[in-house]
Structures are given as structure tokens and as C-alpha cells.
Amino acid sequence: MQKNVLITERIHESGVHDLEQYFNVRVAPDPSFDTLAREIRDADGVLVRTAPITRELLQEAQRLVVMARYGAGYDNVDVAAMTELGILLVNAPTANTISVAEHTLIVFGAVSKMIRPYDLAVRAHQFNTRNSFQARDLHDKTLGIIGFGKIGSLVGRKSHAAFDMPVIAYDPYIPDDNILRYGATRCDTLEELLKTADIVSLHVPLTTETTGMISRAQLALMKPSAILVNISRGGVVDEPALIDALQRQVIAGAALDVFAQEPPEQDNPLLQMENVLLTPHSGGLTLEAVIRVAHQAAQGITDTLFGRQPKFIVNPEVLQHPLCRFVRLKAEGKL
């Protein structure tokens, strides 16, 4: 019997094509709970973008063997519930690394060079703004990277190669050798990095440990000339504290691809600040990246449903769980 794969939201057609070669594929008409609860009941695999995957929803998925997250992060998925129910969660952790790293360099460069206020000034016939002399070089400015994984380390390498920026990093989970290999210097504490860096760039997942890790006290440690870059998750930064720090000129500017609420409310003060560059959670959404993500996420589902252990498993402990559906069905010869 052909297996069923549910796609919760629109993805690049290349991923759909990959899955349609082997499975009965359908795209949910909308990602609401009621719709997904109905559609997921006979699904053997699910590919999800941003729809909330709760325990209640998963309990409707009695046939579900594997879920693939369309991207690297998975904070919209109840991973603990998936593991308890014996369901594999896979992701696409390397597919958008290049795109997000490039985006990071471009936005902090744009803030440093005052691209947005200069653009607005020219359009408003205020050409003499060029004589304000407020734009800054990147050369020899210290880049502080919080989270030195695949994306963070690539940001460090590209920044040093392109702009001769000294790179410092804070990541208690990365060995010294890995940090040194990419030409960075380890900071033993977050506070040390914040006090030293001219540009602070966040590249961490949203977890209980990282939620609100940049708040009022941390912002107060930064240089008045510093720029904060958040391309990770909105919840990593205390947004009201950031707004206050920008309004009081505690720091000089920010580049944000993510927000506490997405999309942000129309009255969010960040939308009115010329020293803040905003993008719509799009750092990893270049054409090339979404194609790579689509292929990688689809491959995780395909491998699993053909009885092959997928390459990128978010919850590998599920393989030892007595209720693991992948292990059971493979042993029964049903995969």
C-alpha cells in the first residue's frame, strides 16, 4: 500500500516532486488545528513549516512514523511529545546555512553604513545628509558571535575574510578547537563578549536556556556604538528591553530578521526606527536555500518510510524508545 505524506503549508515544488515519486502526497488546505487534526489521521509522514505541532495534534496521528521540519529550527514542534509517542523528527539543518550567513553580513553591513536612513534621505531630497559622517567601517571592528555552530562559524569566517574583522565567540557547547579552527577567539562568558564586540550576532536555537538571554542587563553591557543582529529567533531577545535600549541610545542600532510576534504589530516602535533594519524572517528563504531545504526535508521522510535511518534526526533517543514506530515497522517488514 502506498504511504501518505501530508504537507502542512506550501513549500517549494521541488520537495513536493521528490515525495510524489514514491508517496501519495497532499497539501493541507490551511494549517489550522482543526484542518491538520483531520488531515493527519492517515499520514505516515508529515512535512511542516511553521504550523504549531502540539501533543494534542500528534495524538490524532496514529499512523505517523516521521515528521520533517522544513528548516533547521523546530521550536514550533513539541519534541518531547513526539519522542513519547515514538515518532521521529527530522530537519534540514544544513540547507540554508549559506543563505543565513550571507544575510547576516549584508544586514549588519547595511546598518553600519546607514543604508536605510541614507536611502530615505535621498528620496526625501535631503542629499546633504551625506555630510553627517555617521556611517562606520567594518574593517577592524570586533564581531561577537553568540552560538558558533554551522551558521555562526560561517558568519565568522566570511566576516574575517571579507572585512578583516576580529571574531570572538561565546558558545559553551563548542570545543575550543572548533572555535580556533575558524579563526575566532573564545569568550568564557556572555558578558565578556557583550562588553568587547562592536557587532553582536545571535545564532542560537530558541530553548528554555536561550529565551530572553539578551535582556536589559545584557544590552547595558554593550558599547553605545554597538549593533545587535538577531537572525535566530525573536524570543532570544527581550524585545521591549531592546526597544528601550534603542530609544535611549544604549546601543546604536539593530538588524532583526525575527520578532517576538510574527508578523509584528503595526504599532511596534521598531517599525519606526531608522537605525533598525527589518526583514520578514527571510534570511534563509533565498531561492537556492528553499530548494535545498525542500530536498533535504523530503529526503528525511523518504529515507524513513523506506526503512533507512535518516541523516538528521532531532530526537535520536526515540530509536531506543519501546514505542518507536520506525523501529517496530522496520522489524515487521512494513517499511
Automatic annotation (TrEMBL):
Gene3D superfamilies: NAD(P)-binding Rossmann-like Domain
Top-level taxonomic group: Bacteria
Gene Ontology molecular function terms on file: NAD binding; oxidoreductase activity, acting on the CH-OH group of donors, NAD or NADP as acceptor
Residue stretches making up the D-isomer specific 2-hydroxyacid dehydrogenase NAD-binding domain: 110-283
Domain D-isomer specific 2-hydroxyacid dehydrogenase catalytic stretches: 5-315
Pfam families: 2-Hacid_dh (PF00389), 2-Hacid_dh_C (PF02826)
The protein, known as: Hydroxyacid dehydrogenase
Organism, as annotated: candidate division KSB3 bacterium
